[in-house]
Known about the structure:
The chain is of the alpha+beta class. The protein is 37% helix and 34% strand. The chain has helices at 2-47, 54-84, 102-108, and strands at residues 93-96, 118-126, 129-130, 136-145, 152-164, 167-171, 178-183, 186-194, 205-214, 220-228.
Amino acid sequence: MQLMAGAALAQESAYADLNTCTKNEQLKLxxxxxxxGALAGLGGALFGGKKDNAGKAALAGALVGxxxxxxxxxxxxxxxxxxxxxxxxxxxxxxxxxxKSLEQVYKDNHYNKRDGIQLRMQGLDTTATVKAxxxxxxxxxxxxxxxxxxxxxxxxxxxxxVTTDGKETELxxxxxxxxxxxxxxxxxxxxxxxxxxxxxGSGTVYRVELSAKAGDKAPVTMSxxxxxx
Length: 229
């Protein structure tokens, strides 16, 4: 019990360190974006011969730069902090689902051993909404089939997008964007939790896109939207 309690405290400490680091890096990136926007607004006003509006243009440019930069600053900050200490963010969990037998997986997918290595993505689930600052819980289900029932390598690709003002922007994925995992034949479930910034605006829409491939087959892809409330 003491070991488990110690591990839990260590994980809480790691997340606290991650949050502190992320906030600091996010502030730096957002401030930089706002500064670039202010300079752009000021320069446009001056070169346009509208010196009286230069101050207003600089302020407007700062606001635009800050808003545009905020969408990517949070996840870029996480990526920076993660590289400082990889233990601050745990990787996704991908395990064999014992509730579904290998024989049943083969039957459900009409699998023939002559087809070689096959991978089917059976589902991608997440909550439709999330509160700002709370993690997005993601679960993906993969059926993996091999001629000799052996484990095989699966290539996983993850992408994260955000939509603001009708425009979709790709963000830095907070876990490994591309990774290779050894997976048992049968049904496998991958679970992960993606952090969201505590001050993201209500109505912001995130889109999670996951792809997976095995053997020489083309990757399969699914995506889901999550709205901040």
